[in-house]
Amino acid sequence: MLGAGLVSQLVARIVRLPEMVVMIAAGVLIGPAVLGVASNPLGGVGAQLLFNAGVAMILFHGGVGVSLKVISRVAFGLGLLVLPGVIVTAFIVALAVAGVFGVGFAVALMVGAILSATDPAILIPLFDRLNVRPKISQTLISESAFNDPISTVLALALVGTVQSGSFTLSDTFFGFVEEMVIGTAIGLFAGFLLAYLVSTTTRWGIWDEAPGVAILAVVALAYFSNEAVGGSGYLAAFVMGLVVGNMGDLRLGRRLGLGQDEIHARRLESFVAQIAEIATLLIFVTLGINLPFDALSKYFLGGLVVMAVFIFVARPVTVLVSLLPDRRARWSRDELLFLCWSRETGVVPTAVASLLLAQGVKGADIAVSMVALAVFATLLLQATTAAPLARRLGLIEGTPADAG
After folding, report:
1. How many C-beta atoms surround the C-beta of residue 163 within 10 A?
2. What is the pLDDT of residues 344-358, one digit of tens each?
3. DSSP letters along 195-208, please?
4. From the CB of residue 11, how many other CB atoms can be counted at a distance below 10 Å?
5. Residues 354, 358, 360, 361: what is their CA dihedral angle, to the nearest 10 degrees?
6. Residue 193: how many CA atoms within 13 Å on its side-chain side?
7. Which of 27, 98, 108, 220 fits a disulfide with 289 by CB distance 3.0 to 4.6 angstroms?
8. What is the dihedral of CA 339, 344, 350, 353, to 10 degrees?
9. pLDDT digits (tens, 9 = 90+) for 153-168
């Protein structure tokens, strides 16, 4: 699987296709559907560990990469994007899923919640190449980092409703709030503990030279502790990354004297990035190996309708509802248009949908099919056209429109 993923990255660069698309194709090739040389069943220990601890590390990496100083400039609109925005996207997609496939609204809303996350693993390298204005790139990257745990918590909160067969808004809401509160609390505690252990400015930073050991241990401990008490391990992992990545900028961090010199900060970021990349690679290859072709063929035509609503209705409505009230950010028409077109689907929705399929949750086959379609549709349609659209709108740093 690692070999197939690494070859996929090389092939993707040669043929100039998004890596995730080629990784899924590689998984199909080496899996039971074609060559049958690799197997990683969704119900197996390997896949479960990958979709739990692996995704937690990806979200931890997303939190480490978010700068609180940068996102404070667009904090109001960003806050609307990552909380009400996720709910708006999930609700609009749910209407389409329920109408097209004739499923109950709880199942449809669960599918919509899974699809509502965007992907920092795709957006970060994309914007590194594009050199789009920092205001836009940081907003999109921060949105993708924040909405991954939010959409995951919402989807998992709906699983109990789906399995019980009765949909009550109050139970879903309180389940969502409970997971958010517990996940945030444990994430903050574990985050400051980890920051203290890897800090180079305190005498207790015993793992400052080898942060990988501390990160893997504390992230795993916090994740499974959350799962045991009913919180969101995914949210806790993201909050931990946010605390560690901004330890010197947080008020409590400054009081505790937390901080890292440049060399150790780069070492920590490098380690986390490598673990996240390996987990991403394995998740997409695993999706290809276990791609449900029967469900895909069954839901394909209806899925195209859902994708049209997803891309051309849900995303624009979410962006406009969330960012138009943010007068302080002064979003221009061209900036809003680019934001409406940028919402690539990737690793976290893939992992969550696959996890629910392995657990036999009702509607999980629809979720996996829609996620697979969304990955292909958003990467092939949106990621490949982002650069020419940004140039056309004058959003590249240094272009004449940038002066305005």
Report:
1. 13
2. 787 778 888 888 888
3. HHHH-SSSTT-TTS
4. 15
5. -30
6. 15
7. 27
8. 40
9. 888 888 878 877 766 6
Dist CA 394 CA 70 (whole Å): 22
Tokens 């005498």 sit at which residue?
Answer: 203
Name residue 222's amino acid: A
Q: How far is CA 350 from the centre of its chain?
A: 9
* H helices, E strands: number in the chain: 21, 0
Is the pTM value of this prediction over 0.90?
A: no
The C-alpha atoms of residue 39 and residue 400 are separated, in whole angstroms, by 52
Give the separation between CA 286 and CA 299, rounded to whole angstroms: 21
Asked if 51 contacts 58 with a C-beta cutoff of 8 angstroms, the reply is no
192: which residues sit within 8 A by CB, 6+ positions away?
243, 247, 252, 253, 256, 258
Which residues are CB-contacts of 259 (< 8 A; sequence separation ≥ 6)?
199, 200, 201, 247, 248, 253
* Per-residue tokens: 65: 């990469």
42 and 358 Cβ atoms separated by less than 8 Å: yes
Do 130 and 396 contact (CB within 8 A), yes or no? yes
The answer to whether 65 and 123 are in contact (CB under 8 A) is no
- Long-range pairs for 266-269: beta carbons < 8 A, 24 or more residues apart: 267/211, 268/64, 268/198, 268/211, 268/215, 268/244, 269/64, 269/65
What is the rounded distance in angstroms from the CA atom of residue 344 to the CA atom of residue 333?
21
112 near 173, Cβ under 8 Å? no
Residues 27, 8: Cα–Cα separation, whole Å: 10
CA dist., res. 310 & res. 164, Å (int): 27
Max CA separation in the chain (angstroms): 61
In DSSP terms, which residues pair with 396 in a beta bridge?
132
Our CA angle for 149, 79, 179, nearest 5°, is 35
> Rounded CA gap, 124 and 106, in Å?
33
Q: Which two tokens stand for residue 22?
A: 């080629």
